[in-house]
Queue: 4 jobs
Job 1
Amino acid sequence: MRHTIISLLPVLLFGAFLACQPSTESQQWGGEFQLYQANGCQSGELSKAAVGDSCFTYQFDADLILDFCASANCCPDSNRFVLSTDIRSDTIAISVQDTAANLCLCTCNYIVHAEFYDMPEDMYYVNILAGDGQLLYEEEVWRIF
């Protein structure tokens, strides 16, 4: 038993040494967030007048709060999207997948709301992509001091 422990000691020390080495890979943020669609077809301040208009807004102090428009088929009016996010280093990627793209013959703008808590960096690149990979928004967001 003692001989086995002594034999394993160099392996364990080598493993500990490797674990202490700096990583060159991007680190994924493991914090908490919320990501959801606001109910209903939107009009007003954040609605887009045309596809080229931006309705991307943010507030960034301790937490990062984003609101942006996603254009989609107008029915059903709730639970329109499958939303996902990936945060690595200084880049936040949000994917917005329409769940019923051809259900009706009308288009509506929906607000997607995101909150990311206790963000460690002072600046992030935010890329918002449609389900087909089309880039909807490419923004830089800066912490307010």
Job 2
Amino acid sequence: MVKTHIGQWLYTFPWSQIVSGFWQKLPNPYTSSKINKLPRWGERIFYCGSGSTIEFIIEESVCDLKQKTFTTNTVNINLKSLMTVEETCVYRPDKNDESRTICEKKVVARGELFGFKTTLETFAIQRYKKNQEYASLGLEFILHKLYLPQLPPPPITGIKTPDTRTFSRKLSDKAKHLLKSSNNDTL
């Protein structure tokens, strides 16, 4: 059995800034999500299965300047006797507004431990859903710091509510307006 989750995130920054900012995304106020405590049952399963509860991952990134896509593929390189988790993220300009970027995210979890496959897959997908939001918020935080330093960063929250998303968009729109008006003043 394999479990899959597909999600999407809209960034209020152009694709070129996403690609550039991606390499500077760590550290940020959301990086604590990079270290996750396993539940007690997970510690027993993972330690018994591999002798370690530390999971290492490898990430491959491909930037296609012609197609304007930035793709990251991430997979765990150990603990594969228990479970494999693969994530693919594709960043591309929003077709309706080139000043925004859409990230399509897909994760596939495959449990390998007989009797625990479904439990491991469900756990992996639930953990991913929580962490991918923190990763997206962290990148947004860095993008604000890099490209909108004159404005306060979006509020740091555990969960992005519609209010904070609106706040983020308003800040981005205000920054664009300020940049346009300053460019007009210099012409």
Job 3
Amino acid sequence: MDRAALLALSRLCALWAALLALFPCGAQGNWMWLGIASFGVPEKLGCANLPLNSRQKELCKRKPYLLPSISEGARLGIQECRSQFRYERWNCLVAAAAPPDTSPLFGYELSSGTKETAFIYAVMAAGLVHSVTRSCSAGNMTECSCDTTLQNGGSASEGWHWGGCSDDVQYGMWFSRKFLDFPIRNTTGKDSKVLSAMNLHNNEAGRQAVAKLMSLDCRCHGVSGSCAVKTCWKTMSSFEKIGRLLKDKYENSVQISDKIKKKMHRREKDQRKIPIHKDDLLYINKSPNYCVEDKKLGIPGTQGRECNRTSEGADGCNLLCCGRGYNTHVVRHVERCECKFIWCCYVRCRRCESMTDVHTCK
């Protein structure tokens, strides 16, 4: 190994050591940091040096080949969270960098018990299911592959049979439960138990979203594309589609009581007979408005955020700027345009300029 590679590896080790110093082993959300490390998860560092709790480290030691899938699952969840909320007051802001930045990855929202907490846990659990299942289907692991339960059968009368490689989402869900679900009995304090129960439920809601959106893909067989017989298999939806479903669940999330007797129930007494479904997102506390900066909670506020002057939606200046108004400034854009191919052999373009109004919250 050359000197540059040794220096890079030593810096990598120092980075993970700093992560471990920042986060206690028992925290549930530490693994999420693996999704922002641009270098991925180097297996040479070993499970003991990753920001995981004791149960996760033990599972990691037994299945180290899953580390790339865990990292990819975290990356998927973070990316989709930021995509779904990019135009909202809370825009799923994550820490700008790993240590020396000492803030948690999702800041205040990770433990606030709000609707935002619910979405974070659900989308991260879904990301892990999606990534592990994809890895199984790609043949990257020996203990899982395609869903073997669908290899036989079909509908002869309808002219199709199971074939191809169906995504084994059940294995992905099993691993996600093993890796993420921390037993409630291991938590202390009334508030911690309620929050843990909420997080466990939202983890499962994220997994259920992946399973619910499984779709049937088919390929035709027959003379001249007649589709006399079809081979079909089940596949996961794109993670963007799963993210949209979870965003809808977020918009319709259920507030629960901060007290648990035998099971969780709705906060409003007149609604407690309405059952809570396993795919509902649950929250305990109402969200702050995210309008004004709160350094104590790590809320940046919306000052300086770009808004859409003509929109009536969440990205509109009226809503995003919380009634404070907005500033307008002109941005000059320069780009190549009206390009033509000249024989022979180059492209000639004009230099075009345009002016655009950009609106930012006061």
Job 4
Amino acid sequence: MVFKKIREHKEYIQDAASWFQAKWDIPQEEYLKSMNESLLKETS
């Protein structure tokens, strides 16, 4: 298994949000919002 950091591979953010949604049944939009906010904080 290979782990990739979203901050280093932003092209996978949609796939990651879909996986988390399927795993924990929390809306995908919430994961996307959280991931994008996290990425913005890192670049500030």
